[in-house]
Amino acid sequence: MSGSSDHESTSDPGTSGSSSGTSTPSLEQEDSNPLPSTTGLDLTKEEEKLNQNSLEQLDPNRKTPDLEQEHEHVLMRKATHKLSEKKRRKAINKRYDDLKSLLPGMKGLTHSKQVILKKAFHYVESLKADSRLNQGVVRELAMERERNISLEAEHKHWQEKLQLLRQQKGLPPLTPEELQGVATSAIS
């Protein structure tokens, strides 16, 4: 409808368009058949009517109680789906919060999911790099330990040889403290 006039004349589709036999609706006739409003309650009723019409189109020979039961079933499935979807979204958001709490410098701050995932990716990459670095250090320490074990075995061998030589010369054996003193004086 245009905004310039509230009432326009309409003709009956069965007539030739002449003014005889047709009349313009009066204000009283318009008020008796108002257009459906678009309030929330009426919209819900309209949706229910559309849903029922679509159910009738599936099988027009069905009885109304079956249609009503099927309509209730459809509404119940929709409600169940909405609840399960809401639960799923809540679980996902909880996991994002858990992930955010694990990331350094992110506690207590509000960030989008994209930022949380990006920070998590970079954090995991840095942990991988640290792990590779630490594995290299662990390998070096393992080699150093093997070398120390070898040197300790060699040191013990020379201490035993020293004690044997002292015994062959008729000298008393050295105490462990004396042996330690011999080893430190030999190093310096």
Describe this structure in words.
By secondary structure, this protein is mainly α. The chain is built from five helices and no strands. It has helices at 27-32, 40-58, 64-102, 113-168, 176-187. α2 (40-58) packs across α3. The protein is rod-shaped, with a radius of gyration of 46 Å. The chain starts with 26 loop residues before the first helix and ends with a helix.
Characterize the main sheet: none
CA-atom Rg in angstroms = 46 Å
Unreliable sequence segments: 1-41
- Percentage of residues in strands: under 5%
What distance lies between the first and last C-alpha atoms, to the nearest angstrom? 109 Å
What's the count of strands?
A: 0
Principal-axes geometry comes out as rod-shaped
Structural class: mainly alpha
Measured as a percent range, the helix fraction is over 70%
Averaged pLDDT, please?
76
Continuous helix count:
5
Order of helices and strands: HHHHH
Features:
activator, 188 residues, transcription regulation, DNA binding, DNA-binding transcription factor activity, rod-shaped, HLH_DNA-bd_sf, mainly alpha
